Amino acid sequence: MRVEVLSAEIGSTTTVVSAFTGLNTGEPRFLGQGSAPTSVESGDVRIGLEAAIESLKAGRGWGSLAWERFSASSSATGGLRMSVHGLVYDMTVKAAREAALGAGANICNITAGKMRPRDAERMIASRPNIILIAGGVDYGERDTALYNGELIAGALSAAGLRIPIIYAGNIENGDEIGEIFRARELVSTVVENVYPRIDELVIEPTRYVIQQLFEEHIVNAPGMEHIRDLVNGRIMPVPGAVMKAAQLLRQELGDLIVFDIGGATTDIHSVCSDTPEVSRMLIAPEPEAKRTVEGDLGLYVNRRQVMEQAARELKLSLETNDEELRACIKALPPMPKSDAEQRLARELAFHAGRLALERHAGRYRELYSLAGKQRYAEGKDLTGIGAVIGTGGSLSRLPGGEETLRRILASGSGRELYPPPESRVLLDRDYIMAALGVLAEEYPAGATALLCRSLGIEDEVQ
């Protein structure tokens, strides 16, 4: 069998390979999917990839398989670790953080203002793959970013490290920042300021560069060195790929939010505008496309952390006690099969999604001023969202995904800026959002059609 494209999602626990054809002809087809345990820890990602390909062949009854393109998204090896350094946390640091998270990076270190030597030590100890420096609106404060650049360059040189640096701050500093790092023979990239003016975020240029650097990093990460022996197309972070798919779907569905509840993390991606009512009350801007990653909320690697944060609720819903709950959590496999295992996984998915939405969404605040008590809004406004999408193994593969998302939407107290409970709930039933997000730029029409088919809305958008 010869297919046009294979696209792999190399997750923290499972590698999934999906086959597609007709992406360029106007007749795109999803041919099938295979999966296997991710093999990065064994020292070679190819083991898991080849096993997933064999699973695909066996499932489709193909004796052989050849392909023209093979692309991939990955969150294995811990994903992409970034250290972010800005001027004021609520402004440039926040903007830089949003750019990093939206590109699929995981933030391992943050500083605001002028760094101290101890901050540089912590930065080195956090083992970042990329360092992002921001600070100052265009033609505003300059000294902090330049000072931090000098300190970071010195710390990297002293440690013998050549970590790439992105500068996305005051445009006036671009040339000097470049000179600071060139003098130490360090690689740096200057992009558009993430916070060029008060209350304005410009994060797409930084996101693009982060994704480019991720591809360079991932092919040299332990266990991933031989990925190019199989993959000849683009490689992206899994969260960045899901965000691309979400942005593509917004053109068809309007404002939306995506829940990706995985084995190690729970990621939420929202692509939406503020409603006029909430916009008048917001005290700080938020990006249109926002991603949050919760590294303590996962259904396998971090299942114990979810249990600790929702122990009381889990015991009530599962009608069990502490000892029995801990035993069940310990025994839960990465792919639940029995009714009891699936029920536990659904409850963990609900609480992971509930906690992640609470952290992602904004909320109403009441503050006192000379005019008396005033109501404000802070954080991401999700109240205008019309579509809620679920992806990831627990929502796409286990029964009850729609019910889980409905419960999450109804879990607020009324003070949160949550999507309306009556929002439309859709599931990525083919589990191909990340696979198609990698292909979205090259095959936008084909990727859109297949995404809509997976969500069960193909007839509505033709």
Task: Give the structure's gist in a few sentences.
With 462 residues, the chain is α/β, with parallel strands linked by helices. The protein is 40% helix and 23% strand.
- Point out poorly predicted stretches: none
Average pLDDT over all residues: 91
User: What shape does the CA trace take?
Assistant: globular
Number of helical stretches of at least 4 residues: 17
- From the helix content, strand content and strand pairing, which structural class follows? alpha/beta
Layout of secondary structure:
Layout: E1 2-10, E2 14-21, E3 29-37, H1 45-60, E4 66-74, E5 80-86, H2 89-102, E6 105-112, H3 117-125, E7 130-133, H4 143-159, E8 165-167, H5 174-183, E9 188-190, H6 204-218, E10 235-237, H7 238-253, E11 256-261, E12 266-271, H8 276-279, E13 289-294, H9 303-309, H10 311-318, H11 322-331, H12 339-360, E14 363-369, E15 372-378, E16 387-391, H13 393-396, H14 401-409, E17 424-427, H15 433-439, H16 444-455, H17 458-461
Parallel strand pairs: 1-4, 4-10, 5-6, 5-7, 7-8, 8-9, 11-16, 16-17
Antiparallel strand pairs: 1-2, 2-3, 11-12, 12-13, 14-15
Helix pairs in contact: 2-6, 3-4, 4-5, 7-15, 12-14, 15-16
